[in-house]
Structure prediction request, 860 residues.
Amino acid sequence: MIDREVKELETAIEQIWDIAVGKFGLDPFPVHFEIVPASVMYEIGSYALPGRYSHWTFGKAYHRMKMMYDFGLSKIYEVVINSNPSYGFLLETNSPIQNKMVIAHVLGHVDFFKNNAYFSRTNRRMVDEAALHARRMSEYEFTYGRKVVEQFLDAVLSIEEHIDPNVFIRKTEPDPKKKKNESRPQGKYDDLLSPAEIEAKSGGPQGADDKVKSGPALPEKDIVYFLMKHSPTLEDWQRDIMAMLHEEMEYFVPQMQTKIMNEGWASIWHSRIMREMDLPTHDYLEFAELHAGVVSPHKGQLNPYYLGYKIFENIEKRWDDPSKEDREKLKLTGGTGREKMFEVRELDNDASFLRNYLTEELCDELDLFVYELVDEEEWTITEKKWERVRNHLVGNMTNFGFPYIEITDGDYNGNHELYLKHRHEGVDLDMKYGRKTLEYVHRLWGRPVHLETILDGDSLVLHYDGSEHDED
Amino acid sequence: MSVTRNDWSLQRKGQIDQERHKERVRDAIKKNLGSIVSNESIILSDGKRVVKVPIRALDEYKFRFDYRKKKHVGTGDGNTKVGDVIAREGDSGGQGPGRGPGAGAQPGKEYYEAEVDIDEIAALIFEDLHLPYLEEKAKHAVPSKTTKFTEIRRSGILANLDKRRSMVENIRRRARKSGEANLGPFKKEDLRYKTWEEQITYESNAVVIAMMDVSGSMGEFKKYIARSFYFWMVRFLKTKYDQVKIVFISHHTEAREVTEEQFFTQGESGGTVVSSAYKLAIDIIAERFPPAQWNVYPFHFSDGDNYYSDNDEAVRLADSLITTCNLFGYGEIGEEGASSYRRSSGALLSIFKDRLKSQDRFVGVRIDDKEDVYPALKEFFGKRGEAA
Prediction:
């Protein structure tokens, strides 16, 4: 890209910002745009944050994304980082009009990051934080060996999604050094005791481990946190790695919870901003083609851009010009479409967004359906009734698509064994994956582990003791 | 708000981690040779050098839902109805399941497929295989040629210039003249050339007699097993030994010698008379490969479903084969997946194990599963008779 084009882009950014903020009332963080070659774009895309720690799974993702790009199968136009200021990455080979659309899209995302409630506790300096993590991680690799750290990461990554997404309701303290006295019941006159006496009262310096059952409130949904705090086998550097990954997951969870909304919101605004731009006809055509590609339905799948876009559009329409039913039921008076959209972007996540705003009319228009595997052979449409379709969709969003698994006992059999319980909500676990993951959990806990679930309607408990799998 | 464009040319993070991933692929291949050895894409590769094989060890395990038991939601084109089939299990690529909805867990492909070079895998497999009890049958030792650079001369062709030695000579000459050891303009007298010699090494003669049951009871799976075993055996022999002859015999109630191609492709039917194959093998050995001059290795694959009345004869001939041979290998292929199921009576393997006189030169292996092929290879060509 030549300097003239960079200059042109700077002018475009000013213009897009003015439209977004001045005309439409978006409220983004300042954004720093960076023009990067494809290899860097795919790198940032596969790590989800620039400068993150190293692991083979990122290399695998990078390889796959880059290959798709090289073969012309898919292309990332943009990567945006939730931070203050935010970072937007533009692909070097994008055409000027592609870049303009991407810039407008990025502003939509950044507005969402800044204003959606679920992002309110995210670390806005996560790029720095991730770089610090990366440095600590490579120090550990240096000290303990790359393979050792890699194997440990394999284990932690297998359960990384199992944190408590409501971290801002029950704020956890991931500092392993503070774990000692936490589980000790508070005595009335504790402040009169010397530290040594307090220690004695809580069952010695390693009290936390002994009091797993009576200590932290169980069940515990945050498996990473629980293992980090109470595992009898981990060393300090391992707990530190878990704390780092926990922190990164806290940062990513809101993005997993709002994928549809976030993309829908950004798509709504990129399309409106671009329409305000007074583009020459051929540019406008190029934009229209791009936009259509982004928000097009993918048959048999769900395109989050399309779904989110449609719902936001529908919300605006309903609140601007309510139907008779909406006027009666929701007491809508009309003309509040824009206001309502901004309210939704602030308060909802994907699950509530779909539950509240996916209407029958939309289900019909989008031709949504439930499909499942019939006779082990054919993926067949089995449900078209809109309420059931909606409920399935919302159900699939629960716990951002992961099985809900809790720790119900950290001292099972009176033997420091770990007991996990899968809250079965109608769908069985992938048993092979379950067993393999249990091996990882065992690596982190160091003692026998159990997982209770339901398979084909019957209760089933998987056991793994470090060498053998068993079930009953 | 700002735009910058930096120099990213030194950014290598993705590539470095990609290397880590590749390393894992290689490790996984080593650990999974058992299933790779009998992978269709290799055995049926038809000369392709690079094939894709699924490698399970590279999955990123997580607690996840069983994709096949889950109800998914999708969008249609406007007129879908209950009962429409949108995809079939096993369909690859394109649309439909396998590439799940954008949000939530999407298992996508069930496993990771790695591209592997057959030669690389072969090298790993053959690492510790050899022909057991190989003896030097000195009389008719067959020479195999190797070239080795053994000598340095002052003349030769430029392609064989020994640069290091030439530089040393240059420095020496200049040191002699000026007293200072440094590199300067070359003269013809500095140049040194490598030259080679053909070395003749003596390998022992060996012949492998590959026998396969092609009777009606040998179904697809059984044939496939035998085929994958011989695929690697032939490859192994050709890579490791210059002078190994392979004779192919297929049999049902009658045996006949066939070409390699026929051996692997031909389908037959009918009953099984094992002794017919052994008889033919003995004849061929006597005629063309006298044991005084040849190391002889008969291998036989069958499902063990021999005609009852032929068992005595089979044992007798197997015994006589063994007396003339270095090692007799017999592989019995069971029904697919019937690993715990053993037919005790009637099956040839147990008869051999009970009644053969010279057990030490007999190797009998049972194969019930594709994964058993690699252990069988190791069993037949493993570390035994090393001292001989």
Summary: Confidence is low (pLDDT under 50) at residues 171-185, 203-214 of chain A. Chain A has 19 helices and ten strands. Chain A touches chain B through 91 residues (CB under 8 Å).
